[in-house]
From TrEMBL, chain B:
Domain Fumarate reductase/succinate dehydrogenase flavoprotein-like C-terminal positions: 430-503
GO molecular function terms listed in the Swiss-Prot or TrEMBL record: electron transfer activity; flavin adenine dinucleotide binding; steroid dehydrogenase activity, acting on the CH-CH group of donors; succinate dehydrogenase activity
Segments of skewed composition (Low complexity): 559-568
Protein's name according to its UniProt entry: Pyridine nucleotide-disulfide oxidoreductase
Keywords for this protein: Flavoprotein, Oxidoreductase
Taxonomic source organism: Paenibacillus solani
Length: 104, 568
């Protein structure tokens, strides 16, 4: 089951006849990175650029280790620690620059 | 709508939207014993403003002193349009719900004394958990199934219709109660997770005569990398800002002055570096907090702690504003029987007042209003003791839904309509640095565009959905600017250049209603009753409702307000 087709909030993917996902409406992509988080086989890479198409090859991405990196940070997948478990947000204001006041 | 082998279902409660508000509403209604269906445009778990990133929450332990302080601070920041009782209600309810989230398995951190720190939720984790809680409660979830219009008869709302877009199939759900939890309207500005938020919930509710409130409190822009979409901005508290030539614009760290980025971006490009996180340990802490902040920079090969990155501001519409569907009671009911509103789709003013201020309130409001709306909707549905199947319901959608051709070349150009609306709401010079004549002109242009939404909509599911989104955005922009012009003062996040001070005679919330002809009046004034009376009248019919309203001196109060506002 290809989860990206199911979970993409803006319905960017279509299912091809062989059942594989196809990026059918890239212009609808909102660059939310969520399909990567849900991709169990690390097959997706979302370019960070909102308005231009990035030219990259799969090989380049694999070699810099970026494919699947967001899922790894979120900590989903066997043997990983979930980001929520090590979330530092409740403590970040302890290192707020001294001039700063409490943020919200 | 198409008769393409339509899916027809019946429930007690239909929840429209599957962000936190919709998820809590569905869970809460199901917990009351109601049969619940939840539909989402995208996917419950990944869709909406919370899911991709996460949210800081208004959450305080039950300590009376702490809570009273928080309440008085909020009253002040919110321009005294919020209500202490409601803020306390949220503090009480969110405490209960976050304990629940923990028992469901969310791994909240604990401090040195073992006290759970429940004031931040990582979006993907939280919403995945909510999806399982909602499923376990027995709710039927329909993903990729945007609602387009409500069903109604003389008793109020009776369900909705929409499209299951991956199946290319229309659906109809009949239900005695409907909860609108479709989030805010962010006008497709590509803020994180926000492109599903285009205002259909507001339009659907307004088509049944529901009122909106606080639409003028919609002046929020959020910073992101100029090339990217990640609009979580808290970590910019560690930034120094520079201009194009590398001159320092602001460097002390902590929250920047409120107008700083809009003012500077008006003059030219602005760059930032998180140089206040100046040790590896600090950098690790930040990376392990709002982790999504770093994704665009890492991918673009920029070290945000050392290198300068360009910033932009993305308009957030009503998402981190405070306005939405007006609620009439503690159960988040609206003026339409059976219709409830929750989360960003509802006005948050009772709790946040005139300013959403730092976020934290909205996420807690979504949790609480969802819980209350779900419970209210379930009680309403279960008290009717009959199913919505027997009702003679009509579909109420109009703008962006016409299937009839008004002549050759008369079909709706959706993309062009969307761009025209964006040209009115995106520019800082119109919508951030608000001034009366500029907003007035913009509203005139928006009103001139409005009739376009009644042109024929042809084509496939995608085009039909986009047309409805375009109409909803056009309506939302008009509601916003109508309210802006009626609030001739500066309060909370709302400003008008010509009226830089608070005007004590405007210390009330403003209600807007109507679609083709929009009315604005102080909350609770006689106009607020109009649609209620209509609903009670036996021959209530949506298509005549808007025409009836027009004859009721819509501008009477506006004129009065104009007189009061002057010179204060
Ligand atoms: C980047 C960012 C950071 C934020 N940070 C904070 C924070 O730190 N603290 C805080 O308090 N608040 C924060 N907020 C605000 C917070 O995210 C929202 O208040 C919260 O998500 C509202 O929940 P909701 O369920 O009402 O709407 P959403 O989470 O936006 O969900 C709305 C849902 O409705 C669905 N939908 C829309 N239209 C339709 C339709 N026609 N039919 C069916 N479904 C539909 C969407 O697909 C979506 O799933 C932030 C917002 C953003 C954008
Ligand atoms: S990044 Fe684009 S394709 Fe992936 S889930 Fe988000 S919107 Fe869909």
């Amino acid at each position: 089951m290809w989860l990206c087709i199911k979970v993409c909030p803006t319905n960017v993917f279509d299912r091809t006849e062989t059942g594989l996902p196809l990026i059918a409406r890239q212009e609808d992509c909102q660059t939310c990175f969520i399909c990567e988080v849900y991709c169990p086989v690390d097959a997706l890479y979302v370019s960070p650029y909102a308005d231009i198409k990035q030219q990259v090859t799969e090989q380049e991405l694999v070699s810099v280790g970026i494919i699947g990196s967001w899922r790894e940070i979120i900590g989903w997948g066997r043997g990983r620690t979930r980001l929520a478990e090590i979330d530092e947000t409740p403590f970040i204001d302890r290192i707020l620059p001294p001039q700063g006041t409490i943020s919200s | 709508m198409h008769a393409n082998d339509e899916l027809k279902l019946t429930a007690d409660v239909l929840v429209i939207g599957g962000g936190p508000a919709g998820a809590w509403a569905a869970w809460s209604a199901a917990s009351q014993g109601a049969k619940v269906i939840l539909v989402d445009k995208g996917f419950l778990g990944s869709s909406g403003a919370t899911a991709p990133g996460g949210t800081n929450l208004l959450y305080l332990p039950p300590d009376e002193k702490l809570r009273n302080e928080a309440v008085s601070q909020r009253m002040k920041e919110g321009g005294y349009l919020s209500e202490p009782d409601w803020i306390h209600r949220v503090l009480d309810q969110v405490y209960i719900n976050l304990e629940r989230v923990e028992t469901w398995g969310y791994p909240f951190r604990r401090d040195e004394n073992g006290v759970p720190m429940r004031d931040h939720l990582q979006g993907p984790e939280y919403m995945k958990l909510m999806r399982s809680a909602v499923s376990r409660a027995g709710v039927r979830i329909m993903d990729q199934s945007p609602a387009l219009e409500l069903l109604t008869d003389e008793h109020g709302v009776g369900g909705a219709r929409g499209i299951s877009r991956q199946k290319n199939r229309d659906w109809e759900v009949r239900a005695q109660s409907v909860v609108i939890a479709t989030g805010g309207c962010a006008f497709l500005s590509k803020g994180l997770g926000c492109n599903v938020l285009t205002g259909e919930g507001l339009l659907m509710a307004a088509e049944l005569g529901a009122e909106l409130s606080g639409m003028e409190f919609s002046r929020q822009y959020a910073p992101s990398a100029a090339f990217g979409t990640v609009t979580r901005g808290r970590l910019l508290n560690w930034a120094t800002y520079y201009d194009e030539d590398g001159n320092t614009l602001y460097s002390p760290g902590g929250p920047r002055p409120h107008d700083f980025l809009p003012t500077m971006l008006r003059k030219g490009p602005v760059y930032a570096t998180l140089n206040h996180a100046d040790t590896e340990e600090k950098q690790r802490i930040l990376r392990q907090s709002h982790a999504i902040f770093f994704v665009p920079y890492d991918r673009a090969g920029i070290d945000p702690f050392k290198e300068r990155f360009p910033l932009t501001l993305r308009y957030e519409g009503t998402v981190r504003g405070t306005g939405g569907i007006r609620i009439t009671g503690e159960d988040c009911a609206t003026t339409v029987p059976g219709l409830y509103a929750a989360g960003d789709a509802a006005t948050r003013e009772r709790v946040t007042g005139a300013k959403s201020g730092g976020g934290a309130f909205n996420a807690s409001w979504a949790i609480c209003s969802g819980t209350w709306a779900g419970e209210g909707a379930a009680k309403h549905a279960l008290s009717t003791r009959s199913s919505a199947n027997g009702r003679r319901l009509q579909a109420a959608g109009r703008g962006g839904m016409s299937r009839e051709s008004a002549g050759p070349g008369q079909s709706l150009d959706t993309a062009s309509l969307i761009q025209s609306v964006q040209r009115e709401v995106f520019p800082l010079d119109i919508n951030y640095f608000r001034s009366e004549p500029v907003i007035q002109k913009s509203l005139e242009r928006l009103n001139a565009l409005w009739p376009e939404v009644y042109a024929e909509v042809s084509g496939d599911s995608r085009e039909r959905i986009k047309a409805r989104e375009a109409a909803a955005m056009a309506a939302t922009a008009r509601w916003m600017y109508t309210a802006v012009l009626a609030r001739r003062e500066t309060r909370g996040m709302h400003t008008l250049l010509e009226y830089p001070n608070l005007n004590s005679s405007l210390q009330h919330r403003l209600t807007v209603s109507g679609i083709d002809r929009i009315q604005v009046y102080p909350e609770g004034k006689p106009h607020a009753q109009v649609n209620h009376e209509l609903l009670e009248a036996a021959q209530y019919h949506v298509h005549t409702a808007s025409r009836e309203n027009e004859s009721r001196e819509p501008d009477r109060w506006m004129a009065a307000a104009a007189g009061e506002g002057e010179g204060a």
